[in-house]
Structures are given as structure tokens and as C-alpha cells.
Amino acid sequence: MTSANKKGALLFAGGLVLGGLVAGNHWSSISNVAQELLEGVNTQLTQSQSELIQAQQTIVQLEEAMVARTSDAATTEGLIEQKDVEIDQLKAQLVQLTHQAKQMDEMNATLDIKVADQVDSISKLRARLQNTDVLYAERYRLAQAVSDLNERIFKASHKAESSQQACEEFKKGNSWNWVSEKDCDNFNIYNQKAEELMAEFEDQSASLDKVNRELSAFGNLPVPQDQLAIPQEPKTTPKENITQEQSPQ
């Protein structure tokens, strides 16, 4: 082999060796880069997995919170519905109470009118009873006066009757020792007295009749117990009594 061929072979061999070294270094560099990239990816993957776990936990928490809020919302909605029912019931009660209050006002107004009427009726009845008591007392007084006048008229008329007979005997000229002109004077006096008493009797009787009519106008109220002994007015006139009771002389 020539020296040129040897040199060429050496150069080729040297080139192969150098190329192998270069190639080895190149692949070694690529492997390192890939390893670094792989480690970076693993790191990112691990971080992503951690973030994914955190996100899943957050989602679970959000779902739980959403469920809790949904439950609270449902509970709140139920409470609102219950309160709405209670409000409707209270409104119905308010309407009923308002109606009852109106009825009570109407009843109170009616009762006020009735009470006022009762008070007025009681006041009138009280005045009526008082007036009736006055009338009963007046009737009692008048009945006594009429009864007393009746008796006085009877006595005066009786005396006048006796004096009249004596006066007529005197005027006839009979010589009775007990007959005198004084009998005629007495007859005139007793007769005038009887007429005056008769006039008073008529007035008192008219007043008594008026009181009796007024008492009848009060509705025939029962006679008070303290007035039960009221003297009754005479059923006949004094002159009729004289005729019935006086015997001829």
C-alpha cells in the first residue's frame, strides 16, 4: 500500500472516529434536552394533577354549597309560603274583625238609642209617678173636704129646717112660748150658710172630679198603699142626704 493510500485510510478512519464522537456528543445533548423536557412535562403534569384535584375539591365544595343553598332556598320558599298563608289568614281575620266591629258599632248605636229612650221613659215615668202621688194626695184632701162639707151642709140645713118651721109658726101668730122672731132670723142665717156651703161643695166636687179624670189619664195606675183609706166622695148630693136622713118635724 502506498503512503498516499495509507494517509487516505488514516484520514478516513480518523474522520469516522471524529464523526462518531461528534455524533455521540450530539445524541447525548439531545437526550439531556429530552430528559429535561420530560421532567418539565412531569412537573407540569404533577402540578396540573394537583390543580385538577383542587379544582375537583372546589367543584365538590361548590356543589355542596349549591345543594345547601338550594335547600336553604327551598326552606326559605317554604317559610315564605307559610308566611303568605298566615298573612292571608290574618287578612281574613282582619276583615272579619272589621265586620264585627262595624256590627258592634251599629249595635252600640242602637243600644244608645234604646238607652236614651229608656232614660226618657224612666224620667217621664218618674215624673208621672210624682204627679200621680200629688194627684192622689190632692184627691185625698178634696175627698175629705167634700165629706166634711157634706156633713156641715147637712147640719146647717137641718138647723135651717127647724128654724123655718118655728118661723112659720111665729108668722101664723100662734102663742107658743118658744116661738119668736129670732127663729126667722136664725132660719135666714142657717139657710144662707147652707147655700154658701153648697156652693163650696160644688166647687170642691168639681175639683175632685177633675183630679179623678187626671188620674184616669195616667193609665189607671194602682193606688198607693198609703192612700187606700181615702174617703170616697158622696154618691148623693147633700140635699138628697137631708131628704133621706132627716125625719119630718
> What is the average of the pLDDT values?
76
| Count of DSSP-assigned helices | 3
- Report strand %: under 5%
What is the H-and-E element order?
A: HHH
Low-confidence segments, ≥5 residues, pLDDT <50? Answer: 221-235, 243-249
In percent, how helical is the residue content?
Answer: over 70%
List the quaternary state of the chains. Answer: single chain
Question: What is the tally of beta strands?
Answer: 0
Main beta sheet strand tally, sense and closure? none
Structural class: mainly alpha
Rg value: 73 Å
Q: What's the end-to-end separation, in Å? A: 232 Å
Which term fits the overall shape? rod-shaped
Give me a quick take on this structure.
The chain is mainly α and 249 residues long. It is built from three helices and no strands.
Task: Give structural attributes.
rod-shaped
SSE arrangement:
Elements: H1 3-171, H2 181-217, H3 238-245
Helix pairs in contact: 1-2, 1-3
Structural write-up:
This protein is mainly α. Helices cover 86% and strands 0% of the residues. Helix 1 (3-171) packs antiparallel against helix 2 and helix 1 packs across helix 3 (238-245). The protein starts with a helix and ends with a helix.
